[in-house]
Amino acid sequence: MYLAPITIEMQIVKQMNMRIIKMSRLFTILLSTLLLVSCHNRTNKNWASLTGWSSKDKKAAGFSEPTNYRGQSTPPGMVLIEGGTFTMGHVQDDVLFDWNTTPVQMQVRSFYLDENEVTNVEYLFYLEWLERIFPKSEEQNKHIYTSALPDTLVWRNTLGANELLTENYLRHPSYSDYPVVGVSWLQASEYCKWRSDRVSEKTLMDKGVLNNIYSMDSLELNGQNYFNTDTYLANPTLLFEGDSSVYKKGLPVATKKGKGKGRGKRGEFTGRHVKVSDGILSPKFRLPSEAEWEYAAKADVENREYNNIRGRKKYAWNGKYTRNKGRRFKGDQVANFKQGRGDYSGPAGWSSDGGAISMPIKSYDPNAYGLYDMSGNVAEWVADVYRPIIDTEANDFNYFRGNVFNKKMIDEEGKVVVVDYNTVRFDTLPNGKIVPKNLPGSLRYVPVTKEDAYMRPNYEKAYNIDSRDGDLASTKLYNKDEDELETKPRMYNSPVTPFNIGESGLKIQEYDTEYRTTLISDISRVYKGGSWRDREYWLDPSQRRFLPEYMATSYIGFRCATDKLGPMTFKKRTRTTEKIK
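RESULT FIELD:
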């Protein structure tokens, strides 16, 4: 009678031992796999190329060796948007019936996008940098700083008491975390260029290639003396008037025997400069294209079921309504928008969205990609030139209208041309503002010529903004050459530039007196998303509007994007968004 319990215990012990044995075998298999992978990785470092030369052979002979590139790092303040296909322009409501948002299937590449709009405090850093490098007190710089200033007068209303906003919204600390507004498309694009240089500059400081130039007493940061990425990659000696003291040791350089050059003197540049092939510098920042912005705002990935998208989203969040469905904040608004005539926030208390105008960034929950305020708060500039129809017959991959293909200008000696104060060019906008086309210290770019595009199957000229929609090839004069015509035909009867300069240099501001039928032109840029002053209709990411690139409003801001290099995603193919049944 006493054997039964003992037998049961023995069986339990036996089962536990079997489990331990299985676990140990599994552990052994995993450990062996890891060792094999690690050995495989070690052997990959000395792999033989198609010529039979291994990496060690190349290094010993003094050829460039493979870099330790481990993939692109996420730029500060950005999130990775994994590319894919989606239906662009698929709106829920189209009350105007103007075919402005015809649904089209579009493929978008992976890219990085700011998780929130550029704020006042970030833009003020840009202004402070400009004022320091290009002092506005000097006559030669007077248009450089002022060209970047946001138009604070956009808050004025002839029948509204908003004067305090014109004085405080941009610079007062109470609005530091608010989206910057009053910036035109042109100003937003220039900020993206400036940000590219500052990110690369900080990266080189962290890598020990560049000294902290802002703390060097021997260096005067003025005019052309600042860091420019394109100039650095073309020829580092062109920066800072050839002053080598701005550089540290640089990247290590191996000799033919695989040894370094030695420490050298203190502060001496003994290594080499960074190249594109090192993969250290981040790609340039820019405004997102319309397709990219809409794809990121919709975040259809959360509605994916295997390889299908179930349903269509009306907003950046799931659901047909703008109120929170959760138990804790049930009934609260999930975005900042105009709820009705004379109702910008709702009554004080329970149903208020918290802001009569724009609100601080990240005031509401992000969408499925981790992006804030893709519906509401402020609308945002995108890179595209506006056209009523997205021409997918021409291109359904990473669609973008607005390409002007340029190349670096090369002088007679075969060297790149760096802009200085004698060669900087300014442009007079239709509203009378004077802006620099390029800053001193940057490289000069010129449009590609017909000779450059000769016999190319992908493009024929530099200017492609009006391609298939206003250019000569889309008119009845398709068989003509532009050089044969006195005036270039225009598809859209849009206003011409109403600003002229007289023979004596006097500014003459006059309006275009001819009757015009449209505002669509090659300088009309798209802006997306609803804002604090828009009704619910405009919160749909597929809705689109446009404005001339030199104009600014109190409800349009922007965020930056940059390209994802290499694979679409860092992760393996996983069912991360598959619905659990």
